[in-house]
Amino acid sequence: MILSDLLKNTGIRIPEKLAMVEIGSIEEDSRMVVPGSLFVAIKGFKTDGHLYIKQALDKGAVAVLSERQCRDDERVCENPCHENRGILSLIAARFFDYPWEELITVGITGTNGKTSTARMLHWIFEKHDMRSGIMGTIGHVIGGRNVKANVTTPGALDTAGMMRKMVQKGDRCCIMEVSSHALSLNRVDDVRFDAALFTNITQDHLDFHQSMEEYLNCKKHLFDLVKSNGSSIIGTYSAGFPSIDCAVTFGFRESDTYRISDISGELGRISFIFQTNEFSLPVEMSIPGKFNIFNAAGALSAAVELGLDPESASESLRDFPGVPGRFQSVNLGQDFLVAVDYAHTPDALERMLRQASELTENRVIVVFGAGGDRDSSKRHIMGHIAESIADIVIVTSDNPRTEAPDSIISDITAGLSYESQCQIIVEPDRRTAIRSAIRAADTGDVVIIAGKGHENYQILGKNRIHFDDREEATAALLDVLK
What we know:
The chain is α/β, with parallel strands linked by helices. It folds into 3 domains: 3-95, MurE/MurF, N-terminal domain (Udp-n-acetylmuramoylalanyl-d-glutamate--2,6- Diaminopimelate Ligase, Chain: A, domain 1, 3-Layer(aba) Sandwich), CATH 3.40.1390; 99-319, Mur-like, catalytic domain (UDP-N-acetylmuramoyl-L-alanine:D-glutamate ligase, 3-Layer(aba) Sandwich); 328-480, Mur ligase, C-terminal domain (Protein-Tyrosine Phosphatase, Chain A, Alpha-Beta Complex). 29% of the residues lie in helices and 23% in strands. The strands form 5 sheets. The chain has a 9-stranded mixed sheet with strand order 6-9-5-10-11-12-13-14-15, with helices on both faces. A 6-stranded mixed sheet has the order 16-17-21-18-19-20, sandwiched between helices. Helix 3 (84-95) packs parallel to helix 5.
């Protein structure tokens, strides 16, 4: 694509010598530039792309899009809006020729439940011979192959490029987890969705968003991106859901489009009735956790809105295998339950522990921490929740990043009253904390290892080391069961 077509109607002045230059790739990372690239310089949170303009030109970039006048070089075009994130989304869409117009696209946003809802919907689509790509927290899927994910929602270039690959590989659908960061930072501004689904909103990311109101407004932006004939779907089962014109809803209310009733849950199994004014269908799944009922209802609502038969879609979930790191059982034949879960927000931790309380014949033991360099205001809340529900609380490290682990733990323990019957243990070393929990477990107990779920690493300072809660739990169980 030539540069003048790529930047058409953007208000950016293109030097005459550059107008007909062919652009072979678009890059926002100067290290990825090759001869023929357009380099888009963006001032980020950790570094400034403008510092690498010379490097990009030296590597063969034929043009640079800058947010400011910073170099006397006719190959550098200045964006008069002085903000390149929105332009990057637009030109990515043009460069990759709007792949979402050739796919059935579903965007899922919300604090909790995005991954499980996306994986359930993917399972339903696949059962109906609708091969689907995924972009999400635990990994992407393109053309039936798994691709490692570094973030929940990739940047604008990667998003458009991956969706184009999905089309090329024969995928019919794309299911995307859409984070509030992605919505705020223009990563999906030019993507269009056949269905946009909102799961719930609870406190998280207040290190990035200034308030819960701003956080919700970022989430609501997803509904601005729905295709003209698309569907907006809202979960009403949790407080704080937005009101969106013409949206369909799912939850417990009589007024909901899709209604949930007759919930039942036991160890390793859940069931409920999924109904509208036209049908009433039983849904049974061989996975634990009543909270998964809400995720399943969201997935089914999207499936039906997209034209799938309700009965067939519901039946598809009967053999859904679950999601890695989401209430994932570690079972070596012990007489107590050990489960690893990604719960890292107050609401998710509370849901997880209340579910554990319903499942246990004895005690609830929880191991959890909080991420460093992230929203610190939720830490004491999580401490209070753990103490109020669990019988044994082991406070440990999560991904401390550049924060001191002891400081993070102090923020968590600030929410503890030490007045309950709950036993509280502080153990900064996560491996030792997990082993302590499993050694303490007795017949009928439920041990929850929360916060990291599918992650197979721990971030200490700026170093990422291999660490997998599932592996650590397995090793601890092997020791106990000797």
